[in-house]
Structure formats: structure tokens, C-alpha cells
Amino acid sequence: MKAIGLILAGGSSSRMKELTKKRATAAMPIAGGYRSIDFVLSSMANSQISKVGVFTQFNAKSLAQHLNSSKWWDFGRKQGGLFVFTPTQTHDNNQWYRGTADAIAQNIDFLKSSHEPYVIIASGDCVYKMDMNKLLEYHIQKNADITIVTKDLGEVEDPSRFGFVSIDSNNLVTDFEEKPIMTDKTLVSTGIYVIRRRQLIEMIERAGVEGGFDLVKDIFIRYKGIKKIYAYALDSYWSNITTVDSYFKTNMDFLKKEMREYFFDTNPQIASKIEDLPPAKYNAGSKVKNSLVASGCIINAEVTDSLLFKEVYVGNNCTIRNSIILNDVYIGDNTYIENCIVESHGTIRANSNYVGSPDDIKIILEQNERYVL
Q1: Are 42 and 129 in contact (CB under 8 A)?
Q2: Which of 24, 87, 142, 227 is the most buried (most CB within 10 A)?
Q3: 235 Rama class: left (phi>0) / alpha (psi -120 to 50) / beta
Q4: How far apart are CA 3 and CA 90, in angstroms?
Q5: In the chain, pLDDT over 70 holds for what percent of residues?
Q6: 241-250: buried (b, 16+ CB within 10 Å) or exposed (e) per residue?
Q7: pLDDT in tens, 15-52
Q8: What are phi and psi of 175, to 5 degrees?
């Protein structure tokens, strides 16, 4: 493909509360055995983008562990590859990334040493699947300076989460507003952009001289009306997971058969790092209904409308309903959990009771000793 990929995965989200206390948003577990960043990595790999740079910063360890081998997404090749960039102190700079544009600026040599004429930029905290070849073809056909992938959400409860776009009959962007308090617009930017590599270098360097650090506010919005910015409509599933509610809803969407078939049974598929774990085990007396249960789990009780991630143990006489149990959680006997997210590596003591509500999902963090002498 005639483009390189840049994935912006360095931010944190206070709206994720305790869930991003120890991990990057782009490393959030999705659908039992995946991470959020897998969806953009797979879309790029499936679109024959052979060279991808990932910019990390906040809680970079979780992402670094997940990305320690590029073979899962087929980037382990002589031409191209997967490159992970974290902030580094140098003779000329000792700053953390001050924004998305600054993250690219501090690694501008990656762009300058590349030969592909185009760059596709995307965030690592969204769940979707798309053919980026069609996106690039659209960008070239329109002779655009910048192309923004958009999604009409129909209804937006919290406008401050998104950038909003207005377009004319030819899909030319006439207005671009980033994270307003209030708006009647429903067409949002998905955080996916196409731009010529040389033009991006010029814009990034100019923004740096003028003290601009944010890719959207200090570059794209600033050039609105000056550069030809077009919108490319995404007509398939897309979700941003940067709040507790959106993260919970996105995972629950995978309980729908058509959702699983779209992402995992229909080519091209989503790839992820694979761990060598035994299959899930359902002991006598267990009852599982409309749930996703990942490898390494052991179930001894009732699980309904829930997602259990890798290596979860559910004790006897437990009930889990409409909940997400993240990796490596031990749930003691006689425990009741409903409308909750249980954080990874926790131990829920026997006879515990945790109940949230559909409108207020409860996050459970228990670090009790699993084995007591």
C-alpha cells in the first residue's frame, strides 16, 4: 500500500475511572481475548499497510507487553514493520509528549525516513473494522489535502467526547468543532485521517514553531477553509471506548451473534496476541447462557449475559449476570455479581455481593490474598 500507519495510543481517559489506572486505554481488553488496539492494527494489516508506528506514553508498559512481537498482525517482515515510540530524553528534548502533534514531532524522523507518499493516522481506543484501501482511493479521487473518516451516530448523549463535522453535498468539510459542550450535530470524527506524508511533516514542523501540540485543534481545525478537507463516511460498526459506559456497552455488543460473525468469522478477521491456554472448563452444575467465556476459565456456577476474559475462576453457587470479568480473576463460592466490571487479577472473597445498575455500572477492585496460610 502507498501509505504508512500512525496509531495514537498515548493518552489516558479519566472517564474510564479505575480501569485505566494501570493500563493504557488502547490496551483495554475487548470481547474476551482482544485489546482495543488490535482493531486498528488488524485494519491496517488487512489493508496491506506494511509499516506502522505506535505512539505510547501513559502506562506504556501494558501496550509494550502486548506489542512485544509484531508477528500476530503480520508486521514481522523485512520490508516495513511495527515500531513503538515512547517519549525519550535526548540532547535536544527532555519533554513528555505534550499532545498528539508533539508525539509525531518528537519522532519526525520516522516520517522523513519513510518513502510512502501518504499517511493514515488513527487512534487506538476505538473498535471497528474497515478497508483502508478504499479510504485511500477516496482521498486520491477527491484530490483532498486531508480526509476525515466520519460516523453519523444519530444521537449523542455527551458531545464533549467527540469532534463534530459539517459537510456540504460533495462531502467537503465546512465546519469542524472539537469536543463542544453542546451541539445539535451528529456527524462525528472517528479519529482516522489521511494526509500526504510531506504535507504532514510541514504542518507538524510549523505547528511546533508556533507552539501547537494538538493534531486536531492546532493543525486540522486551523486549516479548515484553507485546505481541502473531505469526509469519508464509515457505514459499519464503530465505537469509542473512552468511558465506562461505552466500554461496557461495546463489550456487551459482542454477545450478539451478528457482531461476532462480522468481526471474527467474516474475512478479513481481527488478529491479536495469542496465549497458550487450555480451553474453558465447565464443571458439573455450571450453567452458562448468552455469554462469552475465554480460554483458561473454570466455571462451577451460573453465568448469564456476561463476558469472562482469560483465566477466570468462578466458584460454586455463584451467580454472574450482565457483567464483565476481566483477566485472571478468582471468584469465591456463593458470590453474586450483577451489572459490574471486575478488574483484572482480583480475588473476590466467598459470600460477596456486588450489584450495580444498567445505568451505573459498578467497578470492582479487590486485591485480597488468594491463598491464605
Answers
A1: yes
A2: 24
A3: alpha
A4: 29
A5: 96
A6: bbbbebbbeb
A7: 899 998 888 999 999 999 999 999 999 999 999 999 99
A8: -155, 145
